[in-house]
Amino acid sequence: DAGVTQSPTHLIKTRGQQVTLRCSPKSGHDTVSWYQQALGQGPQFIFQYYEEEERQRGNFPDRFSGHQFPNYSSELNVNALLLGDSALYLCASRGNRQEKLFFGSGTQLSVL
Amino acid sequence: AQRVTQPEKLLSVFKGAPVELKCNYSYSGSPELFWYVQYSRQRLQLLLRHISRESIKGFTADLNKGETSFHLKKPFAQEEDSAMYYCALSGRDSGYSTLTFGKGTMLLVSP
Fold it and tell me: What is the mean predicted confidence (pLDDT) over B32-57?
């Protein structure tokens, strides 16, 4: 089991562009969460998906959107990128009724 | 609003010395508290949870509701304990399914 996998590992975009990040959860997991980790900060919760619906959302603008597919994989989309969106984006998964989160290695997004 | 505070960015100790990584939280209710660790070039992983009341790799943490603290302790630090440590909180308002993290403390254990 490869655990939680994320792609790409690194990405460079310019202001105003749009980006899509991808996540495959750990085998057997059906709940996916996304976190943003800015430099020198702890991870900050963006949103959580379960049964292909957004179930929880953190304090992030509508420019941040997501999707979950029937195979439980997930995408994070960010529109109209700002310099401040530069961060490490972490995906985490867990099984339903399980509290332990497993994290991926993250996607490092740089907005120039 | 819920908040987790880790007052130290960096804690540097010698091998064999006791370690205490501080964590204070703000939450109106009964939260669940966690410590996550990230070793160099590895992904973030759960170290321990307060409800488990277990010792992992010699680390323990006790939830003090009166002081709203969840400090991480180890009596004798080892070089392999060098890592980034994050305290995190989960609350009833999220169904205990999402985490609020502190900013983290880098622990450096020197030989």
Answer: 90
The answer to whether the Cα torsion of A38, B2, B74, B37 is positive or negative is negative
User: Alpha carbon of A110 to those of A11, A87, A99, B31, B77: distances in Å?
Assistant: 6, 7, 31, 34, 36
- Provide the β-strand partners of residue A38: none
φ/ψ bin of B90: left (φ > 0), alpha (ψ from -120 to 50), beta (otherwise): beta
Whether the Cβ atoms of residue A23 and residue A89 lie closer than 8 Å to each other: no
Give the B-side interface with A, CB within 8 Å.
Answer: 4, 6, 32, 43-46, 49, 86, 88, 90, 94-104
Q: Which residue has the tokens 């979950």?
A: A68
Count CB neighbours of B99 within 10 A.
23
Under an 8 A CB cutoff, do B98 and A42 touch? no
Label residue A19 by pLDDT band (50, 70, 90): very high
Structure tokens at B68: 């709203």
Neighbour count for residue A104 (Cβ, 10 Å)? 26
Given a contact cutoff of 8 angstroms between Cβ atoms, the answer to whether B43 and B51 are in contact is no
pLDDT at B100: 95
Which pLDDT belongs to residue A46? 97
